[in-house]
Amino acid sequence: MGKHILAIDQGTTSSRVIIFNQEGKIVSFHQKEFKQYFPKPGYVLHDAEEIWESVVFCMEKALQKANLAYNDIDAIGITNQRETTVIWDKLTSKPLHKAICWQSSQTKEICDELIELDFQETFKTKTGLLINPYFSGTKIKWLLDNVKEARSLADNNQLAFGTIDSWIIWNLSKGKSHITDYSNASRTLIYNIHELKWDDELLNILTIPRTILPKVVDSSGISAYTDESLFAKKIPISGIAGDQQAALFGQTCFNPGDVKNTYGTGCFLLMNTGNTPKLSQNGLLTTIAWGINGEVEYALEGSIFVAGSAIQWLRDGLGIIETAQETEELARKTKSNLGVYFVPAFVGLGTPYWEEDARGSFFGLTRGVTKMHIVRSALEAICYQTKDVVNLMEKEANIKLSGLKVDGGASKNNFLMEFQSDILNCNISRPSINETTALGACYLAGIGIGLWKKEDVISKWIVDRTFKPNMTENKRNELYHNWQRALRACVAFADKKNY
Ligand code: ADP
Q1: Is the link from the previous residue into 352 a cis peptide, with omega within 30 of 0?
Q2: Is 327 close to ligand 1, i.e. is its CB under 6 Å away?
Q3: CA angle 351, 246, 27 (to 5 degrees)
Q4: Rounded to whole angstroms, what are the CA distances from 18 to 58, 290, 413, 430?
Q5: Which residue lies with its CA nearest to atom 17 of ligand 1?
Q6: Which of 74, 186, 216, 493 has the highest count of CB atoms within 10 angstroms of its CB?
Q7: 375 CB less than 6 Å from ligand 1?
Q8: Is 339 near ligand 1, meaning CB less than 6 Å away?
Q9: CA of 264 to the centre of ligand 1 (A)
């Protein structure tokens, strides 16, 4: 029957399981949404047990759809929403609190205090990240400080911390393996990405006891097995990576300078920088792409918080469209944006601005503006924001972009991809398998059991469509110049003191 790899893609709003065959083709797929909890403004929580149940449910369904049994699965690969933080009791395997989602800004005060104490540079140099609620470190501290019993359990060596990969593997192995991989560890704000170890100084600053931390393992290679009581056999877990790093792997961005952009709720651009960690002076993050046989490769990362979610807002907030798909046709109905620029800073601005207080703004509205222009400006904004990040990456890595590989839900929009190619003035390649995140986990797991080599998976990457630039230099410069004016105006509005 050939080999099969089961990829678990545990995302922010849903869990998915995709079964791939030996050729790296999708055999079956199942997805289940789970509940989001917003108990207070800025808080975003998940129920870790519900996440685990949704994963098991998707595994069962995907197997049924493929007419396969656990016995037919040769390896499991896991990719996950990053930074989301769980603590649990090692004896009972029960979480002590809801998981704190990466989106949750509930630790802003802790972050402000650390910045006030002048720790920004220490964290940045060691972890490649910034002190920001986005990362796990301050979430762990919040849980230890706010959950009764957490510290006393930690004192008894009975407490475990994990990102979602650790939590899933803990459950799959029935508590035998408490591990995470290099890529996930590098998003916690407590992992030294140069020395490849949990950093004592950072742990001290955040008052996090070492005993609660998982062991850091390779992203590819057998690192754990499912417990025999769970399925018909012990299945090796041989691929683990955070979602954006898995997408980089799934896009086979294996060489320094290779870049992918995922167009989902937000946009995440990652550039492979090989075995050198490039530290950014201008708001890009430095992160571990993956670690194989103890050797890690690094990436530069730019995070755009609002991309596809601006389209959701047009649909659910403004109600001017019914589906995300129709934005393509609407945008094509108008030849230009009519001078309208939209900065969708609903939750502040990420790379390179890191302006938490910025808010969404429209510029250039006149009476001639219709919903077509509004829609077009929202799509264009995704492309301009991407250009902001690409410009910075090129400068900091000293590499000229030769092309961009794309994936994610919004990359299906051909207008968006054409405009992106025009604005960047480079080719855009969209692969035939859009599920690159799960594909990355599948490749890592397949390589991890010796089914493929890295070279084999390169030949499996098939392009669906290439978009080539078709815009004059003048036009491109004019549009981008206006975008930057809009952006500066939006940032100025965020400054309450000066105006
Ligand atoms: P995530 O994994 O972040 O939940 P997906 O990769 O599933 O996101 O992409 C969904 C996002 O893409 C949504 O925000 C949606 O509004 C947007 N989207 C989906 N299809 C289109 C489209 N054809 N044009 C523009 N945006 C789209």
Answers
A1: yes
A2: yes
A3: 135
A4: 9, 21, 23, 20
A5: 308
A6: 186
A7: no
A8: no
A9: 5
Q: 324 in ligand 1 pocket by Cβ < 6 Å?
A: yes
Compute the CA torsion angle 203, 206, 210, 211 (nearest 10 deg): 180
Q: What is the CATH number of domain 4-244?
A: 3.30.420.40
What lies within 8 Å, CB to CB, of 204 at 6+ separation is none
**Boundaries of every domain in the chain:** 4-244
For the CA atoms of 212, 215, 220, 221, what is the dihedral angle to 10 degrees? -130
Q: Which protein residue's CA is at the shortest distance from atom 18 of ligand 1?
A: 410
Q: How far is 497 from 280, CA to CA, in rounded Å?
A: 29
Distance 96 CA to ligand 1 centre (A): 33
- 350 in the Ramachandran plot: left (φ > 0), alpha (ψ -120 to 50) or beta? beta
Distance, in Å, from the CA atom of 109 to the CA atom of 101, rounded to the nearest integer, reads 17
DSSP classification of residue 411: G
Nearest-CA residue for atom 9 of ligand 1: 409
- β-strand partners of 302: 269
Look at the block and give the residue holding tokens 């961009």. 404
Q: Report the alpha-carbon distance of residue 56 to residue 36 in Å, rounded.
A: 19
Q: Is 344 in the pocket of ligand 1 (CB under 6 A)?
A: no
Length of the chain: 499
Among candidates 27, 24, 25, 22, which has minimal Cα distance to 2?
Answer: 22
Angle, CA of 359, 361 and 364, to the nearest 5°? 165
Ligand 1 close to Cβ of residue 13 (< 6 A): yes
Cα of 457 to ligand 1 centre, how many Å?
26
Q: How far is the CA of 132 from the centre of ligand 1 (A)?
A: 25
Name the residue at shortest CA distance from atom 13 of ligand 1. Answer: 308
Going from the Cα of 408 to the center of ligand 1, the distance in angstroms, rounded, reads 7
Tens of pLDDT, residue by residue, the chain (499 residues) = 789 999 999 998 899 999 999 998 999 999 998 988 988 888 889 999 999 999 999 999 999 999 999 999 999 999 999 999 999 999 999 999 999 999 888 899 999 999 999 999 999 999 999 999 989 999 999 999 999 999 999 999 999 999 999 999 999 999 999 999 999 999 999 999 999 999 999 999 999 999 999 999 999 999 999 999 988 899 999 999 999 999 999 999 999 889 999 998 889 999 999 998 988 888 899 999 999 988 899 999 998 988 998 999 999 999 999 999 999 999 999 999 999 999 999 888 888 888 878 889 999 999 999 999 999 999 999 999 999 999 999 988 888 888 999 999 899 999 999 999 999 999 999 999 888 999 999 999 999 999 999 888 898 888 999 999 999 999 999 999 999 999 999 999 887 776 5
How large is the C-alpha radius of gyration of the chain? Answer: 22
- Determine if ligand 1 sits within 6 Å of the CB of residue 409: yes
Query: How far is ligand 1, taken at its centre, from the CA of residue 55, in Å?
Result: 22
Closest approach atom of ligand 1 to CA 379: 25
